[in-house]
Specification:
The complex is a heterodimer.
Chain A (H helix, E strand, L loop, with lengths): L2 H17 L5 E2 L3 H5 L4 E8 L11 E19 L5 E11 L5 E2 L13 E9 L3
Chain B lengths: L13 E2 L4 E2 L4 H6 L33 E10 L5 E11 L3 E2 L6 E12 H4 L6 E14 L7 E17 L2 E21 L5 E25 L2 E14 L7 E12 L2
Antiparallel strand pairs in B: 1-2, 3-4, 4-6, 6-7, 7-8, 8-9, 9-10, 10-11, 11-12
Classes of the chains: A alpha+beta, B mainly beta.
Chain lengths: ~120, ~250
């Protein structure tokens, strides 16, 4: 290759480096800070009557318009055992949360459980 | 200008019975040297978008891409002197959204040397300048931006006796719209966007007499009327009057 071709290749390489950007934007999404909170898909429990003795799991599904702090509270009807699952996301899914029947602290769950409530924080 | 936290006006820093911090006006920008940054910083300092949202760090402003035009006109007899500047910029990368801000800057200044036109021995001149900034960002209603600012400056300088001048100056600064103020950490990374609404009018009128005592020594006595009006904002309006005497020595 002659000198001119080399120069063109070098300029092309420099421009290609300048035009490539991994990030779409700087900082956190404004939509997450100031966007309206909406429940896009209602809270659903997959396998509401689980048998934990054969290692069945309970998963949840819910989708929001923006990431929020959520807390799912599960109560045992007979033993009053509780389990709290919390996180920060715009999606609650089996890929993120699965409950194997264990409590947050003693006592243990026994037979019947009540999927009590889901709370959100960080939205209006 | 340094708009960092804790940097407040040194003249009448608090106002109203609630002792609230008085917002900075164009009077403070002219009279208060403590508002100006005197140090070098390794990170981008906080800036107020109402005064300069397009090039807050001058030519070194990062994340800008665009063109700038600069034009000057002076006629042969130097009766009319004119300047025109225009800039059209856009962000290289969006902030908090993929949509990029678009900026338009229009500056115009005109000086009329009336004494040259009327062939007077004593100086008589009139100046007019206007500076307009427009910032826009499209996208959804949450992240969209529309900020407009306009600064108007009128001044008259008339020599009524040898080395004595009457000076009058009127400045008006209007801002309307919304913008997201950017907060950065010590590494220059954006940590938060504060949504801010602006709708304010800032006025200042000065009338005074200047005496050129020597070539580099000036004495100036002037009276200032200045204040701010806010619409739909928490800050109360204010008005101040002040008599000022300045003795200036150019070393």
């Amino acid at each position: 290759m002659n000198l001119k071709t080399n120069n063109f290749l070098l300029i092309g390489l420099v421009f290609s480096l300048f035009t490539c950007s991994e990030k779409e934007f700087e900082g956190m999404p404004i939509e997450n800070l100031y966007g309206e909170f909406k429940i896009l898909e209602p809270f659903e429990i997959n396998n509401g009557n689980p048998n934990f003795s054969i290692n069945e799991l309970v998963s949840f599904h819910c989708e929001f318009s923006k990431p929020v702090e959520y807390k799912i509270t599960i109560e045992g009807i007979s033993t009053k055992a509780t389990r709290e699952i919390s996180g920060f996301s715009n999606l609650i899914d089996s890929s993120l949360i699965e409950w194997d029947g264990s409590p947050s602290k003693l006592p243990f769950f026994y037979r019947r459980v009540l999927f009590n409530r889901i709370n959100f924080r960080g939205s209006n | 200008l340094d708009y960092g936290e804790g940097n407040i006006n040194s003249i009448y820093p608090l106002y109203t019975n609630m002792q609230t911090i008085r917002p900075t006006s164009i009077f403070d920008l002219i009279a208060d040297d403590r508002l100006y940054n005197q140090d070098l910083s390794s990170i981008l300092l906080t800036f107020n978008p109402i005064y300069s949202n397009i090039l807050p760090f001058g030519d070194a402003t990062p994340n800008r891409n665009g063109v700038y035009f600069n034009g000057k006109y002076t006629n042969k007899s130097k009766i009319i002197l004119g300047k025109l500047n225009a800039g059209f910029f856009r962000e290289v990368i969006g902030q908090g959204t993929p949509d990029k801000r678009r900026f338009t800057l229009l500056k115009a200044a005109l000086k009329l040397n009336i004494h040259r036109f009327l062939k007077l021995r004593k100086e008589l001149s009139f100046s007019l300048s206007s500076e307009n900034e427009f910032t826009k960002r499209g996208g959804n209603s949450v992240s969209s931006i529309d900020l407009r600012s306009n600064q108007l400056n009128l001044s008259l300088n008339a020599e009524f006796a040898k080395r004595f001048f009457i000076q009058a100056n009127y400045r008006q600064f209007n801002v309307k719209g919304n913008e997201f103020l950017t907060q950065r950490n010590d590494f220059g990374e954006i940590t938060y966007f504060s949504f801010t609404d602006f709708n304010q009018k800032d006025k200042m009128l000065s009338i005074g007499i200047l005496n050129k005592l020597r070539e580099n020594i000036y004495a100036n006595i002037q009276y200032n009327w200045w204040g701010m009006e806010f619409t739909g904002q928490s800050s109360p309006d204010y008005k101040y009057n002040r008599l000022l005497f300045i003795l200036s020595l150019k070393l």
